[in-house]
Design brief:
alpha/beta; TIM Barrel; two-stranded parallel ribbon; 11% strand
Amino acid sequence: MAHAGDGAARLRPVPSAVVMQPTTTCNLACDYCYLPARPNQHMAPAVAHRVAAAVNRWVGDGHLVRVFWHCGEPLVAGRDRLADLMAPFAASVVHGVQTNATLIDDRWCEFFLDRGIEVSISIDGPEELDVHRVQRGGRPAHSRIMAGIAALRRNDVPFGALAVVTDPTPDAARRLYDFFADLGARRLGVSLQQSLSPTRCPRDGADYEEFWLALLEAWLDNPVVRIREIDHCIDDAFRLLNDPERNGAADVDPLPAVGWDGEVVLTAPELLGLRGPDDLPFSSGNVLETPLDAIIATAAERSPWLAAHLAAAQECLDTCPYGAICPGPSPAPSWFETGTLTTGPTEHCRGAVIAAAEAITLPLLRRAARPA
């Protein structure tokens, strides 16, 4: 990989996925949500057509690009609106929805099956762990989420899940895994709750390691659910065994998030609609004015915050002992925790990257390196 110049990492020209915001509305009010209250806005078909123009070129050149409908509750947009927004994309594009499942019924299941849509449910585990996902007014949402999942199971719709962990303990890891295994989830992503304040007391790194180790042990005992973070650790271990040398500049997935109005935020969908340093928007352009591939190609020049993030990513690669398995600081945790984009390791980095490496990746490497 070639250097991007000025000691900075570079964005890949083609993303692995595009995140689309069909609506700003969410019908829940999770108490850890970082998004501000926003008026009810829906994406216009013109925005989807402009994004599809770039995505269809990429898949036509042989790239696999997924389109995820997220950044709000996508099912609030309704089936007809979602169908119109998906229509301009090529048939080879894989669509996915990240949903809280509270609106899923048999008709939604038919919609998912007919269109081959990948479904991922936002739920934080069994009822005793799923306490932060609440309805407007503060009532627990768990029973409504489970009713939506029951509809998926009744209609044989495969689904994955995304869980936010607020208290990463070994006991929570085991209960979390057992719940999703019993539920029939095909895959699970585990996100540690992001700190929204620089004054939050950080955990000891050993606490995070014990959490990941317990999750690994639960998976090894019953490997029926693919765990995103364990997959990443295994992939990193195999890659480092075959190519242990660092090579060039960090190559960052642009992961464009396209807002309802066409504004594009790169590398960090969590920052969509927010404002950053000097009260400037995080957006790098608007697809109604500039093609998406051109926005990606010129983003570092358009967005000072992104240039700062890419420089920080390269510095991490060059100086951090974990740089070979991490592309650098994630912009959203850096911004939420410290209010800057140039910081070094964050609590999120220590918990989600370093602790997982210590608990999973490095033991795999040591085991592979033992003489027979």
